[in-house]
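Recap from last week: sequence in, structure out.
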Amino acid sequence: EEETAARLSGTEALVMLRGQWVEVDRERMELAMRQFKEVEALAAENGLTFSEAMRMLAGATITDDGKESDVSDWAGVTAGPFLAKTLKALRSPDGKDIDPGPALKGTLRPYQKAGVKWLHLLSGLRLGACLADDMGLGKTIQVLSLLLILARKDKDKQPSLLVAPASLLANWMQEIERFAPSLKALIVHPSAMTTVRMKQLIADQFADFDLVITSYGRLLQSPALPEASWRLLVLDEAQAIKNPKAKQTKAVKSIKAKARIALTGTPVENHLGDLWSIFDFLNPGLLGTSRQFA
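Predicted structure tokens:
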């Protein structure tokens, strides 16, 4: 700090620094130090979120008012030991002890095993994951495998919530019965229970289940679902929330969960804004605001 203060207080354009002549641009130094102090204060108060750290690493220094700082043009940020180790694990999960075992009544293909390891790593870090395998490649069995692993490893049992189009609810139950019969699942939808029983549901009742399944439409009408705290929040056909202004998108984003997963074979249907909305659900802030992203 003393050395930096001396450089800022001087008047010379060139200074000898550790045996080298270095040009001093005091305006830029002051800007960099000001931003450094702001980040330092933020980290000391709350710690940096993964999204904030990744935006800094990417040089995405756009501020809240939409103006872009020029610090990233000439300054660099490097990951510390923990973040560097995390990023390495994200690129190639080791998958140690990540196996659903005999509880899964089926065989995972190699790419599905890789998907499960990746989902497990991200959910363990409380980060959102978008699994965008094409239709028919087994997104369902990968999620069920993850749920089986969590059911075995997590000491504190906590239910997960799956939101899907109403037409797919029965299909999910069939897949559970086929591949993961040990999972205890509940469908909250008029097709599976009476309106009276749905109105009587309270958040505490979900603790008896591994997975609660509902539709996007029902989520808007069931007060017990948003009141509960979930281990995972999984969206099937996640392109359903491509419109960030839609009521069902806002309802989904209000649900509390330790980690979020989006399943969609078409993460971009019309334009890249669709992808922004999905990632705003998965990892809020990572891609900035919709205006900044545009």
